[in-house]
Amino acid sequence: MGRSPGRCRPAFARWTFAACRNCPPLPLIEDSEGFVEITAGRLGIGVTKGTATAPTGGPLDMAGSTFTIADMHGPAVGARLDLQAEGTIPAMLSVLDLPPFGYMTKANVPVDLADGRAQMQGWVTFPLHTPMPAGSVDFAFSAAMQDVTSDQIVPGKHLTSNVLSVDVDRAHVAVSGPVQLNGADATARWQHNFGTPGSQVTADVAVSDALLQALAIELPLTTSGAAPGQLQVDIIPGAPPAFSLTSDLAGLAINAGAFGWQKGAASRGNLQVTGTLSTPAQVSALTLSAPGLDLRGQLAMAEGGGLAEARFDRIQLNGWLNSAMTLTGQGQGRPLRTALRGGSVRLSGLQSLGGATTGNAGPLALRLDQFEVFDGLVLTDLSGDFNPTGGYSGRFTARINGGVAVEGAVFTQNGRQGVQITGADAGALLQSLRLSGAARGEGFTLTLVPDGASDYLGQFSARGLRILDAPALAQVLDAASVLGLIQQISGQGVVFDTVDATFRVSPGGVTLLSSAAVGPGLGISLDGAYSTRDAVLDFQGVVSPVYFLNGIGQVMTRPGEGVFGMTFTLGGTAGQVQVAANPLSLLAPGFLREIFRRPVPDMTRESG
Question: Domain range holding 449?
Fold first, then answer.
């Protein structure tokens, strides 16, 4: 009896109880078996068999759990509880939510966060005196969960997994492992840091059509294959989950029929999507850049699924489109309505918009700063609406190079768009094209018809044109010593009753196949080429003075040429025109000029 506390004899005993409790207020362990061991002031209690009924989720197998007091006679007696438990996931989480733990309440998530089975192991250390000082309880738990399903880890999304791991300590609770999110594969981690609101999901994902469907995000494009990506979802109580998705797009093929762009699976790019997983989902920022395409914008999903609106503040596409674009959904299964505002578009790319190349185009509205018909001819302040039936067609109003007001029509021929432009003042047209300093005229028509894969055949006609200031024409007349007409061009002007031209527009420039300007005092014919790549001119022509008399023998000559006319050439560049004339050619009748006339140069091909 007088033995000192430190000299207690070792003791060991086994028990079989109907119920025991290893740590209040944890649930009773029922139908239990175990042992008690006391050695040198150390107390150990172990459970070899027993089940505890959790507050939620049914029984837990507690075999293997132990309770230890390392020094029962020390100045500050503390205990360690080592838990081993197996049961349902809700049962496991409900135990972790009991005092002194309260992990799930601290994380603001329910104990039925997920369904499945779990095996848990962990430890808790705590003092055996009351009150317990703040921070005196320490713990760490881990669990392996199997056959997991959850609609709450990512609210509104169905998550499944064959196996997930759980880690809990004083700083955080986390769940991680391979999952399927609404059928899309990912390797994810959900984590809540104690003391902060909300939680976060981070995942390595396969960016694919399956993932976009899982997130209920409708992009104005189709995909095949998959690219590695990173998904982050921030879950804040009382608000829709916010997400961000990034990828380099390697391995993902993209077809954006809404604006005629494609990317192969082998090429890389940059995709950044941020928004909320609300109902419906919203995309507050979308960035997509890849070879030939750069866009920035926002997306709004429609109630019941599908795209309500895609608004791109900037879209640059293959060098022919630089504008702001809005795509508006017209209901499931119907093509998108396309609207462009500001910026510039080239005629050659128009057939790509809205899915016109696939035959699944919607209406198109253009409100553009610039619409480039070809190099050197730009329609400004263009406003038009176009119907996709059989390819885009419709009418528009605009100005040419910011000058003369025109009306026009776009039409489709052989799968490409052509254009016809009409105006009321041919003189103002010459000024807008910087071909004349001062001129007046009556109506004009310019028509461009698609020819082949990239060329256009053009026709131009004008009536009642009076030229008051044309430096190049003045140089020709001066070289021909046509003094009366030189004085006339600087006075009342030179009058042409008719002006007609046929030309070809190619990617490298313009070839003037034939042209004639005819008036009572002067007739001019001209052909040649202009290279838009380097602004080089190469033209040849004939000027015929006193055309109302000289043109009587026109049957022997070309339109615009009289029986007698002086040949001339225009060379140099657009900024420095070089005029050369042959006055002696006036002595040669028209039929001889035709013999020595050289073919029209094709500088557009030579410079390409």
Answer: 424-606
d(CA 374, CA 446): 13
pLDDT digits (tens, 9 = 90+) for 347-401: 888 777 765 555 567 889 999 999 998 887 899 999 999 988 877 889 999 999 8
- Contact of 95 with 86, CB cutoff 8 Å: no
Coil, helix or strand for 42? strand
Q: What is the pLDDT of residue 1?
A: 36
Whether residues 573 and 441 fall in one domain: yes
CA nearest to 447, candidates 366, 510, 504: 504
Question: Which positions ≥6 away from 233 have C-beta within 8 Å?
Answer: 154, 200, 201, 203, 241, 242, 243, 277
What secondary structure letter does DSSP report for 588? Answer: S
* Distance from C-alpha of 172 to C-alpha of 273, rounded to nearest angstrom: 28
Segment 298-305 long-range contacts (CB within 8 Å, at least 24 positions apart): 299/217, 299/218, 299/219, 299/275, 301/216, 301/217, 301/218, 302/218, 302/329, 304/280, 304/332, 305/216, 305/218, 305/280, 305/332
Whether residue 197 is contained in a domain is answered as yes
- How far apart, in whole angstroms, are the C-alpha atoms of residue 544 and residue 72? 125
The number of beta carbons lying within 10 Å of the beta carbon of residue 349 is: 17
Is there a single domain that holds both residue 510 and residue 574? yes
Number of domains comprising the chain:
4
Residues 362 and 300 in one domain: no
Residue 227 lies in a domain: yes
Name which of 169, 175, 173, 198 is nearest 188 in CA terms: 175
294 and 323 in contact (C-beta within 8 Å)?
Answer: no
Please check whether residues 235 and 342 belong to one and the same domain.
no
Task: Tokens for 121, please give them.
Answer: 């192991």
pLDDT of residue 596: 46
Same domain, 411 and 441: no
214 CB-side CA count, 13 A: 25
**In angstroms, rounded to a whole number, what is the distance separating the alpha carbons of residues 523 and 455?**
30
Could you report the per-residue pLDDT of 93-113, keeping only the tens digit for each? Answer: 898 888 767 878 877 788 998
Report the pLDDT value the prediction gives residue 367, as an integer from 0 to 100: 96
CA distances to 6, 77, 126, 133 from 73, in Å: 8, 7, 16, 20
Q: E strands, 236-363, where?
A: 242-247, 252-256, 261-263, 270-276, 282-290, 293-301, 307-317, 321-328, 337-346
pLDDT attached to residue 549 = 45
Residues 295 and 429 in one domain: no
Say what the pLDDT of residue 335 is.
Answer: 84
Largest CA distance in the chain: 151
Below-70 pLDDT ranges, the chain: 1-26, 100, 134, 354-360, 470-492, 546-564, 584-608
Residue of 308, 362, 318, 363 whose CA lies nearest to 344: 318
The helix (H) or strand (E) run that includes residue 591 is helix 590-596
Question: Closest Cα partner for 518 from 543, 487, 483?
Answer: 543
The phi, psi pair for 428, rounded to 5°, reads -65, -30
SS3 378: strand
Beta bridge partners of 467: 439, 494
- Cα separation, 323 vs 315, in Å, equals 6
User: Which residues on neighbouring strands pair with residue 224, listed in sequence order?
Assistant: 253
